[in-house]
Write a structure and sequence with these properties.
- This protein is 20% helix and 30% strand.
- With 189 residues, it is α+β, with helices and mostly antiparallel strands.
- It starts with 7 loop residues before the first strand and ends with a strand.
Length: 189
């Protein structure tokens, strides 16, 4: 993975299930908690590997575990996707028929206070980053608590790739006489 300059490791959920069934079920039932633990563990493991660069082991570099294999009742298509799948990890099968451009999304902004000669940091979360859907304000701070102006340091800010795709049910799997259904999916990083 590191030799190919990738930041995503594909983990077989079947292998996880064979070693620890509760962990595999936790991944499917509570993906925000369990997947983040996998991501942190992957980052820690990369930190212990020899011949890694400081950029690869820095806290700003994110690594992710992707999951493949048998999802059982959590395998669906745009027609069978329902509210029962909310906050669950699902495997969605279909055809991508529309993609937006990849745009940067700010994750952490850095602001400099010229009067006090200090930096201010602010982290941002939208509804796709938490299981509760709680998001932070997306307004950039213009001044600190005392009214001193802040200058945004764009070079020090952290951004994430952001894209929206539309996945359509495969036409050959749609019921006879019905149009294929579709669903929009938000992709981060």
């Amino acid at each position: 993975m590191l030799q190919k300059h990738q930041r995503r490791l594909v983990v077989s959920i079947d292998e996880v299930r064979a070693r620890n069934a509760k962990l595999a079920e936790g991944l499917l039932q509570h993906p925000f908690d369990f997947a983040q633990a996998f991501d942190r563990a992957l980052h820690e493991i990369i930190g212990t590997l020899p011949n890694t660069t400081p950029k690869q082991t820095s806290d700003d570099t994110m690594y992710y575990c992707a999951f493949s294999g048998s999802f059982g009742q959590y395998a669906c298509n745009p027609r069978t996707l329902s509210s029962a799948h909310l906050n669950r990890m699902v495997s969605l099968e279909g055809i991508v028929n529309r993609c937006s451009l990849v745009r940067p999304k700010v994750v952490k902004s850095v602001h400099y206070n010229e009067k006090k000669k200090i930096f201010h940091f602010r982290e941002y979360k939208d509804q796709t980053m938490t299981s509760t859907g709680a998001s932070t304000s997306s307004v950039y701070p213009q001044e600190d608590d005392e009214g001193n102006p802040l200058v945004t340091e764009y070079g020090y800010c952290t951004y994430r790739d952001h894209q929206t795709i539309s996945i359509q049910e495969m036409p050959e799997r749609a019921p006879a006489g019905q149009l294929p259904r579709g669903v929009d999916v938000i992709l981060d990083d």
